[in-house]
Each structure stands twice: as structure tokens, then as C-alpha cells.
Amino acid sequence: MSNAIQNRYDFVLLFDVQDGNPNGDPDAGNLPRVDAETGKGLVTDVCLKRKVRNYVGLKHSEQPPYEIYIKEKAVLNKQHERAYVAIGAEDVLKDDKKRKGGDKVGEARDWMCANFYDVRTFGAVMSTGINCGQVRGPVQMTFARSIDPVVALEHSITRMAVATEAEAEKQDGDNRTMGRKFTVPYGLYAAHGFVSAPLAGQTGFSEDDLALLWESLNNMFEHDRSAARGMMATRNLVVFKHESNMGNAPAHELFERVQAKLKDGVTAPRSYTDYNVSVNPKNDLPNGVSILEV
Amino acid sequence: MKNFCLEVWGDFACFTRPEMKVERVSYDVITPSSARAMFEAILWKPAIRWHVHKIEVLEPIRWINVRRNEVGAVISERNIKTAMNTGKGSLGLYVDDPKVRQQRAGLFLRDVKYRIHAGFEMTERAGAGDTPVKFAEMFERRAAKGQCFNQPYLGCREFAAGFRLVDAKEKLAHPISESRDLGWMLFDMDYSDTKDPKPLFFRAEMKDGVVDVPAFDSEEVRG
């Protein structure tokens, strides 16, 4: 775990959606998530992390050291068995009647971090038998929020077929069903993220892993097309790199520099070009902080 | 013991009540244990132990309901060991599997802002070169610059917190003018037996926006 990153990073991810549902709310019949008080759209942190995992899983075809622990069932090759980097400690299993803290738990945890990208990036809970044995990942993301209020549109759609015989009989062979889908006509969302260098040291999150994180944040929507999502795209990823591993400036002050404002005269945004996005003031960053082009 | 004051804020927060943690419901205000963790996110060494004295609530208590798809399983240590030893095995966790997927609602706080007062004491694990002055200066230096070990958060990691060190000389905004009995609240976990940590509770009361936190060893704190 010696090649872990040495710098702290904070980032702002701007992405947009057009005629799609970026993140459905299971509490509201899959309507796009909306903050009821402000009308602004929400996308949960777990939704975004899911897409990072999917991208990395796709790109590295689930091979160590880029395996993905938390998978979607779409990958149905649960049966396959893959050779692991065995570290050889066979007496462990024999001597395992009562699990005690400290025996081989640390080794198992390190091994998981070394093999699974999502475990060393986002962390994971492992049942280790000692209190709260868990891996805290260096990368932390927040809920994404839209810059301006979004409206959720409901569309009724038809299907020229029915699911069951009984349904067909009821309709005398007319065989039509109605469905609903929800879209946001347009929304520009901002999520904030943090990469802690000290925590990276604990999981072995390396410079290569970091580059892969930026790559996946830039490309994750390109491989997440579906009928529900519409057009989604990462528009801007502003990464603040701190010279020191503990950081050189408070994150909120850096985040405040990234501004997205509606252009004059636009009341209902319908595209990215309706916004002015800027990093203010770009040339006056605090000492030891630089903006990374990724 | 020197007193330090941090102002912390964020869009959302969830200080989960232990009696309602399947569908998470937050306490009305930040718990002393979560407040302590914010100081630890900036500076902690085995040589010191943080104690929270006072919590000032600076924004009205407001709520939001969010339901998410979550995973209800933990990584099996036994499966990992088997895979390590035999050199083969399938370890993925399939989140669409109805056995592990759960939809959970959460009742979270929104737009919170607190002023937290805390100090630290030296522990028995302090070395010869460890002095309170050293840690006090380190903490102040880091907090003033916005440095931290990891970004502090408001109960859950997805609810990141902004923070700033409050200068002793600055004029402070008043906390909210609201008083309420917050009932029995989690004080902190007692880790003195590391294999079996025990929760500690105290009767929390907000008076004009201020929650006074009793000392760890006082009789107001019960196991």
C-alpha cells in the first residue's frame, strides 16, 4: 500500500439530463427525485457511485485488481470461478472456531482492497467479528442537486401487446396496455466529492486508481444508456488538487468558485448552452491549490 | 482544558436514532458522538481524546424524506479466506438479488448549521513528546486552513459538512430561539471493552438553541 496518492482532492461534477429520468424515487412511483421545498432535482450519491462501478467493471472486464464487489445482476456469470492471488495461509481455516479480532482479518481486508476497485475506492463493510470492522474508502460523494428547479413530466405511453391471455380476452383481442414514464425536460446537476489522501493510504488507492476515477466520472453516462435515462452527459469535472495530503484550503471555499448561472433572458433552461459555467476567480486560487485538467 | 469551537453546516444530515435504524430517522440535532467525530476528522491521535461540551443550533430544525435502494448484506470474511486459500471463488455481491436488495426510506435533517464547542484531554497512550500545546496548535492550524484527515460529515458520509474554526474574538450569531426537550439521546459509544462497545445515553435538552453536553463520567450519562 505504499503507492497510495499523496494529495487531497475536492471535485465538482456537473452533469445534465435531457428528456430523461436521472434518478427515480421509489417512494414516489419512480418520479424523478425532487426536493419538495425548493423544486430542485436530486440524484443520490449511491446512484452516481453505481455508475462509476459499472464503468470500471466494463472497462476492465471484472479482472483483478479492478474487480467490482457490488455488482448488478445484469452480469449473469455468477457461476464462473476465477483464480485469485492466493497468499497461502491454510492453517487459518482450521483455527477458526471462534473468530477473534486481529488474527487474519487485516490480511483479508488488505486482500479485498488489493483486488476490488470499489472496495478500495468507496470502502465496504466486512463482517470481521470485531466491532465495526469496515474499510473507509478515500472517495466520498454527496447528493447531486440541480442548479435550478426541475419539472417532472408524466408521459402516458401505449404498448401494442398484453402480458397474459386473460388480459387479451378481456380486451377482445384489442391487446393494448398503457404505461407511464417520467422525464425531466432539462436539468443541470452539481455533485460534490472528496478524495482523502490519508484514507487512500489505508486502502492503497493509487494514482492509477485516481486517473480511473476521473475517467469514469467523465464517461460513466456514455455506457448507461436506457429508455428511462434520456440524454445524460458529464459536462464539467472541476478537480481541485491540494499540495498537502491534509489539504490547503477548505472545500466549501473551493466549491463556491464553480458557478453555473442561467444566461440573461433564459427562464426555462432546455440545454447546456442556456448556462454560463465558470470557475471564479480561476487565477486566484489559494496557495497550494491547483485546478487539475482531467 | 482549552476550548475549541467549530462551525459546521451542510445541506442534509442524518444522526440516526438507534431505535429506528432500519428505516433511518435522524435525531433532531447532532449527537455528541457525531460532533466528536468532526473534530477527529481534523485531528486525532491515540494520545488525545475529544470531549464535546456544547452544541449550538443555528438553523431551524427541518426535515426531508428520501428513499434509496440499499444493500443489506456484509462481506463475508469466511468467503474471502476461502478464496484466498483455494485461489478460486466468486465473491461479487449482486445488488438486484432480492435477498440483498432493500429499499429504505430515511427521514433526514436539511440545511443544518451548528456551532460545536469541544476540548481534548491527553490519554494514557500519550508519549513523552506529546504535549497539549502541540496538539492544540496542530488542530488550530489545520482547522483554520480547512485541512482535514477526511472531510467531516453530518452523520452519514454522503452528507458532507463544511467547517470553519470560530475565532474566540469574533462576534457570534445567536442560535435559534427555540427550546425543546429532545428526550434520551445517544451520548457516545463506550469503547473501553473493544470487543463489546456499549452505547451511552443522556437526557438532551435544547434551551434557546443550546444543548449543554454533560461530561463523559458525570451521572447524567447512563449506559
Structure class of chain B:
alpha+beta
How would you sum up the global shape of chain A? flat
What structural category arises from helix and sheet content of chain A?
alpha+beta
Separate helix tally of chain A: 8
Which H/E pattern describes the elements of chain A?
Answer: EEEEHEEHHHEEEEEHEHHEHEEE
- Spans of at least 5 consecutive residues with low confidence of chain B: none
Low-confidence stretches of chain A: 75-80, 88-101
First CA to last CA of chain A: what distance?
A: 24 Å
Number of strands of chain A: 16
Q: Helical proportion of chain A?
A: 10-25%
Instruction: Please state the overall shape of chain B, judged from the principal axes of the Cα atoms.
Output: globular
Helix content of chain B: 10-25%
Major beta sheet of chain A, specifics?
A: 8 strands, antiparallel
Helix/strand order of chain B: EEHEEEHEEEHEEEE
Chain pair with largest interface: A-B, 78 and 58 residues
Described by strand count, sense and barrel closure, the largest sheet of chain B is: 9 strands, mixed
> How confident is the prediction overall: mean pLDDT of chain B?
92
Rounded radius of gyration of chain B (Å) = 20 Å
The total strand number of chain B stands at: 12
What does this structure look like?
The complex is a heterodimer of chains A (294) and B (223). By secondary structure, chain A is an alpha+beta fold. Chain A contains 8 helices and 16 strands. In chain A, strands 1, 4, 9, 10, 11, 12, 13 and 16 form an 8-stranded antiparallel beta sheet that branches. In chain A, strands 2-3 form a two-stranded antiparallel ribbon. In chain A, strand 7 (123-127) and strand 8 (134-136) form a beta hairpin. Chain A is flat. The two termini of chain A are 24 Å apart. Chain B has 223 residues and is α+β, with helices and mostly antiparallel strands. In chain B, strands 1, 2, 3, 4, 8, 9, 10, 11 and 12 form a 9-stranded mixed beta sheet that branches. The mean pLDDT of chain B is 92. The interface between A and B is large, with 78 and 58 residues. Strand 7 (123-127) of chain A pairs parallel with strand 5 (75-76) of chain B.
